[in-house]
Amino acid sequence: MNTDKSKEKELLWQSRFSEPFDREALLFSSSVDVDKVLYQEDIRGSIAHVTMLSEEAIIPVEEARLIIEGLEEIEQEISSGALVPDWEDEDIHTVIENRLKEKIGPIAGKMHSGRSRNDQVATDTRLYMKRVVNELGSALKALKHLLVEKAETYRHTIIFGYTHLQRAQPVSAGHYYLAYFNMFQRDTERLDDLYKRVDTSPLGAAAFAGSTLPLNAKRSMELLDFGALFQNSIDAVSDRDIIIEFISTCSIIMMHLSRFCEDLILWSSQEFNYLEISDAFSTGSSIMPQKKNADIAELVRSKTGRVYGDLLSVLTVMKGLPLSYNRDMQEDKPPLFDAAKTTTSSVRIFTKMLAHTKINEERLAKLTGEDLSLATEIAEYLVKKDLPFREAHRITGKIVSHAIESATPLPDIPLETYKNFSELFDKDVYDALKPEASVNAKQSHGSTSFASVDEQIRAAREKLKM
Predict the structure, then answer these.
(1) Is 445 labeled as catalytic in the residue annotation?
(2) Does 393 participate in catalysis according to the annotation?
(3) Are residues 96 and 132 in the same domain?
């Protein structure tokens, strides 16, 4: 598109102005490079609006037909690349309306009857959000399915549970995977709950006060498959809390992914060597040939900060805005689009990476059988002998100190030595000093015992059917 022709364009709002809009100001305010993402939603919203206008006899049926056919053609043109949005058209809404005017003439102007850019943009945004909420929900569901499969595969594999990044107690690896299943399940529930608030049509609110034309907002709602209709025209166009809530949910999802990635990065290092990430999701070094880096996990971890930034951006934009609409709200789109794309792609690539990750079962079996993380079993052994827990804790601490000083694993300490610490010890103490026994001795609800993990797997599968 040449510059001379583009100079002839008239912006849709310019009729009352005597001077042309400054070109540098137009470049600064143009959002078409960002909001062109919404072209399908914009056309869908316009078709619904025009259909309603025709049904209410606000515009003739034949003219509505011409407008709708023109819009459908424009959608194909943009999809195919035949029509490339130009920054000088200001935004995607202007691109579409100007192109429609080229196609069918002044009739195109009737498309905007009873509609403001304010309720138009709000409608486009909600239609877009309905789509991306569902896409992100589907990505999470695939991840949760994989986590249940991992839990099933490794339900009898013993790994270390950590607190303060120190070995704490042996747990079932299945129990570990199900912990993340529950986190992502809550993320899914947050998205499901958010969807109810997103699924509200703002079309018909006009600029913010409504319209003198006999608009049928309920019909527009039905045509766009919204589940509810706005109750207040000011609120319909002036708030962006659904965007804030969506990015907040994305931030929580990314936080969960980041913590998971941190485990994978640590556990795949030579120092831990608890698991291996497939070469297909690892990189090497340009100078150190021996290196195998968990780069995909690191990138997911880093993108968490990016989504946090998106959330802070929208919160800051909205914090001081008076009712109703303000142009500041144009800046809600970059963080919304970025958070949606970043979070969904992160969930998807993480799921693929996790599917190609294997636990080093042989190494973990050896380590968990020798580790001091079985000390809690000694304390609880004494409690079962009717010793107060604080006294049992004190005795066990002394046993641990002895094990460290003598470099003797707890299962290898002679019974005579145990009896030196307390006469309550008997040979059955060694039954408790096995990782499997430690895990299966857990009796409380939601614990790490194999039976409990099996029950949790069944419960998780039921949730996935919902």
Answers:
(1) no
(2) no
(3) no
